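User: I'm new to structure prediction. If I give you an amino acid sequence, what do you actually give back? Let's try with this one:
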Amino acid sequence: MNFDIRDLYFDHVIKYCNRQLKKDWQDGILLLEDLSLLKDIYQTGPILFTFESVENEPGVADFTYYMPINDAVLIEDDPYYEYLPNLYIQDALALRQADQTVDFQAAYEKLVNYANDQNIPIGETFYCVLLEAYGEYIIDLYVPVERRGEFLI
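Assistant: Good question. You get back a string of structure tokens that encode the predicted 3D arrangement of the chain. For your 153 residues, that looks like this:
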């Protein structure tokens, strides 16, 4: 497995939030791709997302998607979309290509187990970075380290 500590940074990001079924996690990606066509912008990096399960609603989560774009864009009074000048996650424990694990929840569990074994304090939120290659998604996971201290990697 390929773990390391690294930053995650993108300039000019469109953020999209929605409550949806976990099994429909790819829907947000399609909506962001459609938005780029409508706003005359283009994607400059991989789409990434986070999600939080909804209490008492199994199979449902609050998803937040991020898509790096070429330039600043004005998004007027839209409750779902927001423009961010940048997205910066400093000092995240990263699992490169999620060790060929297709299920991002299973990949996250591997990352958590590694962090526990190495005494690396991490948060609960993970960023799932989707890299498209040959019509398939490769998953990279980033989980912010909660506090700096001495740990080995």
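You can read the tokens as a compact description of the fold. Here is one thing that stands out. Helices lie at 27-38, 104-117.
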